[in-house]
Description:
- By secondary structure, this protein is α/β, with parallel strands linked by helices.
- The protein is built from 3 helices and 8 strands.
- Keywords: Plasmid.
- This is Capsular polysaccharide export system protein KpsC.
Amino acid sequence: MHRAHMTFYTGSAGILARKAQLEPMLGHPLHAFKTNTELAQDDVLVGWGQKANTRQIRQKAHDLGLPYWQLEDGFIGYIGHPARGGKAVSLIAQGKFMNMPVFTGFVV
């Protein structure tokens, strides 16, 4: 499979529920990871914080030799409470991509 850009994949329903807010911050498409997903060398698996499903996707990235990014809310994560429709305004991503450390903040 050949694509012109990297794609982010996650096994987290919570991350996928925030797809519309996260994709502009990440700058690349975000999709559900399934066992039969065809992955490219520059794709990245993502998880949130230190949850159990995060450990699973991190291990899957390791097993497949793909980068893994751990996502977290940024310092000012939302304008308004997320349960009341507040908008995400920042995100922190930690991990490695092409053997280079990634620690960055994204702001919308």
